[in-house]
Design brief:
heterodimer, A: Rossmann fold, Rossmann fold, 6-stranded mixed sheet, 17% strand, globular, B: alpha/beta, TIM Barrel, 9-stranded parallel sheet, 11 helices, 48% helix
Amino acid sequence: MSSESKFGDYGGQFVPEALMPAIEELTDAYERYVIDNEDGFMDEFRRRLAEFGGRPLPLQRADQLSARYDTEVYLKREDLLHGGAHKLNNALGQVLLAKYMGKERIIAETGAGQHGTATAMAAAHLDMPCEIYMGETDIARQRPNVFRMRINDAEVNPVTTGRGTLKEAISETMRDWATTVETTHYVIGSIVGPAPFPAMVRDFQSVISEEAREQIVEKTGGLPDAVLACAGGGSNTMGAFHHFVPDDDVDLYAVEAGGSSLSVDEEEGVAPNSASLSTGDEGVLHGARTKLLQDSDGQIMESHSVSAGLDYAGVGPELAHLVDEGRVTPVNVDDDTALEAFHRLSQDEGIIPALETAHAFGYLERVAGPATDDRAAEPRDEHHDDLGDTVIVNVSGRGDKDLETVIEETQKRDLDIAPDMSIFNEIGGGI
Amino acid sequence: MGLERAFADEPAFVPYLAAGDPDYDASIEYVEALARGGADVIELGLPFSEPIAEGSTIQEAVVRSLDAGMSPDRFFEFVEELDVDVPLVCMTYYNLIYQYGSGQGPEPFVEKAAEVGIEGFVVPDLPAEEAGPLRAACDEYGLDLIFIVAPTTKGDRLASMMDQTSGYVYVQARLGVTGAKDDVDDATEESLARIAEWDVPKAVGFGIKTGDHAERIVSAGADGIIVGSALVDIVAEGHENGDPADEVAERLEGKARELKAGALRGAEQQATAEGS
């Protein structure tokens, strides 16, 4: 572990002056407790991750997908982490760190609600008051998670500015922090924001690849040929990649949300996708220099994805750097392909994935799946048409939270793979 | 001679408005009204889509201005068109400065700003640690770079900022984001005391709403007052009520006179206290 604040030219600390002392204090705490294990912080973190979170989590061979793709497909089952997504690895780490730092209050932003839920659980577990900022668009499309946060006794503050998604929620949480910085810790939910957050969140999430690397060697006697993970801000991505980064023979694919289109509408300031690694330009947002969806003036675009958790105009600076270095390959999958993959994993493997996670499986299908009429028409990715003999896909979260969206979006489309959804109309729409 | 000159004789009144709020033409009138009302420096906001240091009042101004078509190029036209005899400072976020022109560096933006007559910058998301390239470009074109001293800024950070700031220093009166408040925070006096020996004018902002606030802050030792949200509130109210721009401009001029008069009263008290 290291406390790097820059990744190549990316990263840094572009925040209001009022926050700088808190960021220095946090950097100091990160170095002492997380990197140097002062006062046994990391031992307590690992113990709580095991007892409260349920780690270690299995690496499971996906029998049906392996047969379909003629490739050994292994699933890293982060959906089995307490709360149903990888988010608790980070939230538990940061809430515990806040406690070691003597902070009295926790705030966090959330997009899909998974990070908010994980933070609310961790705060309840560690007896800290907690407030979550969430865009009103996201509140509407992720209601189950709003209920879970409230039931864990967290306050949920709706954010009504902009399009009411993750970008606005982060800005609003930073405003709260600028007011309450002396008593409050901001549990940022991804590998974004000012240093030390990107490195610290990665360190908490790197338990994913630490386990997966040992498990794949144990099961197959060697390293995988490729690791696939979906990428929004990029915390499950870097968590799944970190311990494989030095293994040059392991290809790393960050699967972004292609949304409905990769093109942008400069006039309206809208990018109907969240593919900042694939299509973004360098810029400064939310405390870091990174790749962004922005117009030619530098105004931040409104992103889009069917999956709330990927719906963000930026990405972690470390991922941006690894892409520039050629170590990580950014690819993207559109809403339709992600929905198909959602249904396939649910039907073939008995795992209902988060819509975020479904993007990673959508890429697997596109590259390794049987040819279809649709696909014959579009060019295959020339360089990546063979992922190799052994592939790990990070199952970053489970899809219970997405069922309303999936039913709605599936009914809008003509997907061969989807089950008959008419029963949901008969029972009155909502679930 | 940099922006220091605006603070030389008497306490300076430094108003802020978002350029182009609620539209280009009305905003020109409003800025000129502030100059007539006694502004000594005017901070013009170039709206950025993610204003993380702003409270709801200025966030809404930013949205109105962007919706009405404000952009960096339009902002520079705006500055050129203004008929005011007051130094102008551009307040914006770093990404807009960084992307301008061929992009990926602050120099083209600074060059253009200098060309249209901007004399300095306030960049709320650019702490001293990241300011090197902008500081260098400002030096090259003879512009001031104003840093914000927060209630939490102490020790080494304060010292490194003192090395970099020029024109004046923006003393943030309270923690939090911008927005008019009904009182004066004790943190103001403590912050002023921490930088008392700095040889640069100290202008206090964040939360100042009335002439009485201005008086109290200047009597506590400030060389100037920065007022944004209380003025933007007047613009917003006029916009919501559909009031004619000249009436709104008159209200702004009146508010400016109230704030400037308060600052002058504060200076008298300061002088009396020093004399006794």
